[in-house]
Amino acid sequence: MFSLLSLPSTLAVLATALTVMAADCPPTANVAGMPIVQNSHRITINSTLNGVSFSFATYVAPNYYDNDDFKPKQGHVWIHGQPRTGNEMVSTYKNSIPKAVTAGHIASEGDVVILSLVFAQPQDEAKSLFPGVLTWCENGWMEGADANEAAVSSFNVIRSAFSYLQAKYPSIDTLVIGGHSAGGQTVQRYAVAQPTDSSPHRYIIANPSSVAYFTAERPNCNTTSTCACISPGYEDTCCSKFNDWKVSPCSTDHEQNLTNLSCRPA
User: Fold this and answer.
1) 80 and 128 in contact (C-beta within 8 Å)?
2) What is the DSSP letter of 245?
3) How far apart are CA 169 and CA 163, in angstroms?
4) pTM of whole model > 0.90?
5) Rounded Cα gap, residues 25 and 75, in angstroms
6) Domain count, the chain
7) For residues 32-59, b (16+ Cβ closer than 10 Å) or e, as one string?
8) Is residue 57 a contact partner of residue 75, using CB atoms and an 8 Å limit?
9) Regarding predicted confidence, which is higher, 216 or 228?
């Protein structure tokens, strides 16, 4: 079940919406707060998963996304980097749409609708721009961790974003997910954790600083490395977590309880 609320509407129903409690997160002095951005095209999407109601934050484009005559052919979900600047992602993408038309990739600017998700942290100053939404401690959202407020993972939010697009825009025939930097890591791991998912149809993984391996095999360390070992048989302290998620799907102890994960044959 999905519903779309503008910011004023969201404020009006806060008494009955998901209550966001202060999370017991470790200090995050090395992680900058999300910048305050005044953007009229930010929305809160309400959803339900396994009987759990929750809300997640996103920027949206184009400006006429809610018009009755808007019938996009492609639905895109984009994921920000570590600074959580979803506004920059959607602004950059909006600027690229005319170039895509010129290049012949799409017929018109009205062919695409974009959701640029925001995985906020409790300390974000800008969280007041998205009242009542899910939040995550540190970078847990990058690996599919559950939110602080409910047993809903960042991967669940991505899946819900696509379901929302399909329900609101029946005209869509192509779904795309993309991410930059930390968002690229998230997209790659979403693909690993959801191997049988029919949506999205296209994955764009840009500039990730790490990716998940598909097997327990690893390259040899060089002679100058402090980690001179190769799997299987990692015993060194520095390598003790080489096969844990989010580096590998081969671990049987996933903190995120991602039951779809499995180790691929070498």
Assistant:
1) no
2) T
3) 10
4) no
5) 34
6) 2
7) eebeeeeeebbbbbbbebeeeebbbbbb
8) no
9) 216
Shared-domain flag, residues 148 and 107: yes
What values do phi and psi take at 136, rounded to 5? Answer: -130, 150
Q: Which helix (H) or strand (E) holds 163?
A: helix 154-168
- Written as one letter, the residue type at 136 is W
CATH of the domain at 182: 3.40.50
One domain, residues 265 and 135: no
Q: What tens digit of pLDDT does each residue of 68-82 get?
A: 999 999 999 999 988
pLDDT digits (tens, 9 = 90+) for 138-148: 888 998 999 99
**Region 175-204: what's the mean pLDDT?**
87
Task: Give the structural domain span for 92.
Answer: 2-206
Q: Is the distance from CB of 57 to CB of 120 less than 8 angstroms?
A: yes
Q: How confident is the model at residue 17 (pLDDT cuts 50, 70, 90)?
A: very low
